[in-house]
Design a protein that fits this description.
single chain, Serine Threonine Protein Phosphatase 5, Tetratricopeptide repeat, about 70% helix
């Protein structure tokens, strides 16, 4: 005999089954949607990683192409120099005697040991200098470069590399002496020599000539970092900040070196966009944590907003990295003068003027220093050899 509950049980079973199927369908749909979202996110991340890797590979290829072009230029110049150099009769007929071995470097006279260095040894030194500059290690690069003396005894291809290092270190007097010995060079070396002359023109204030030279060189080398960097500096010094911005943005597009970011910050600092300038200085330090000019830029921004304590802290970092950096001593003098520390300000300013007497005019124009020291005191700290000339372009914010 069948009970009523037994008759209703199949109906409830079918309803429950339909409900369960509907719930499973909802769950599976949500799961499928979640799976699609996860796959999409993973695909986007993978695509981003692939694009970043492609950018890095393109940067590496561009650098290899530039290095190969430079090596070919240097080899052609070296062959030309060897063909035009006089032959000696010692050793085999028509061959020059091998260079003498170079003694180990001594701390007492690092510049004397390479007055006439073997080509391989000098090239190795320049390799180290260029690697340090790429990392923003200016102090280490300058110390290593000193081993080559004034560079005039080097073969022409190495002299050109030596000159580029002088440009990046802003060693203008040494660059002028080097260029004085390059009155006649083979055609294969003209582009490199013209770049050095353009940098010297920027320092000397011949800005239209420098921009014209750099524009001509950029026709054949549109993505060359150093050409774009110094064109941006020239345009900034010529009072064309927007064109300087555009050029420096191109310079920083394909490199992780700090100089372009630093000068991009200088553009904004001079335009009183201090917050944006600080962003660019930090980008320079992200590329090279010990790049002294970028830390100085942060100190200048701090001085402009009236935070002399933060400025002094930043400048202490700079002087730990480069103890003989005139600009850092000058800015430190301003920072401690703003804190009414007269003795410390006099000490820092005296050291700055010893290193670079041309800072005297900037000391006169500094409100902190002009309020603390009289004209006669400033002249006394500068010494009798002070020229009172303005600071050269390209060395300060």
């Amino acid at each position: 005999m069948t009970t009523p509950s037994a008759q209703k049980k199949p109906q409830r079973s079918v309803s429950e089954a339909i409900g369960r199927l509907y719930a499973l369908w909802i769950i599976s749909s949500c799961g499928l949607l979640l799976l699609i979202v996860i796959v999409t996110v993973l695909a986007n991340n993978q695509t981003r990683h692939l694009l970043d890797e492609l950018d890095r590979q393109q940067d590496a290829i561009a650098k290899l192409r530039f290095d190969l072009k430079r090596v070919n230029t240097e080899l052609a110049a070296l062959k030309q120099a060897l063909r035009s150099s006089p032959r000696t009769r010692s050793g085999a007929a028509g061959t020059a005697p091998p260079p003498a071995n170079v003694p180990a470097a001594s701390p007492a006279a690092p510049a004397a040991i390479y007055r006439n260095p073997p080509v391989a040894a000098a090239a190795a030194v320049l390799d180290g200098v260029e690697q340090r500059l790429a990392r923003g290690d200016r102090a280490g690069a300058a110390a290593q470069l000193a081993a080559l003396g004034d560079g005039t005894a080097l073969p022409l291809p190495l002299r050109l590399r030596f000159g580029r290092a002088l440009v990046m270190l802003e060693r203008w007097d040494a660059l002028d002496r080097l260029l004085a010995g390059m009155s006649a060079v083979p055609e294969t070396a003209l582009e490199s020599v013209n770049f050095l002359r353009a940098a010297a023109d920027i320092h000397a204030g011949r800005l239209p000539e420098a921009v014209a030279i750099l524009d001509h060189l950029l026709v054949n080398h549109p993505d060359d970092y150093e050409l774009l960097l110094w064109r941006g500096i020239a345009l900034l010094e010529a009072g064309r900040p927007q064109r300087a911005r555009d050029t420096l943005d191109r310079a920083t597009k394909h490199t992780r070196r700090p100089e372009g970011w630093y000068w991009r910050g200088v553009v904004e600092l001079r335009a009183d966009n201090d917050a944006l300038a600080v962003v660019y200085f930090h980008k320079a330090l992200a590329a090279a944590p010990t790049y002294a000019p970028a830390i100085e830029g942060l100190a200048v921004a701090a001085l402009k907003r009236g935070d002399a304590v933060a400025a002094a802290r930043d400048l202490a970092r700079v002087l730990k990295i480069e103890p003989d950096r005139a600009e850092a001593h000058f800015l430190m003098a301003r920072a401690v003068a703003a804190q009414h520390q007269r003795d410390a300000a006099a000490r820092e300013l005296r050291r700055a003027l010893q290193l670079d007497p041309a800072l005297l005019d900037r000391a006169r124009q500094s409100p902190e220093l002009a309020a603390m020291f009289s004209e006669s005191q400033l002249r006394a700290m500068a010494g009798p050899k002070s020229s009172g000339a303005a600071a050269p372009a390209g060395e300060r914010p």
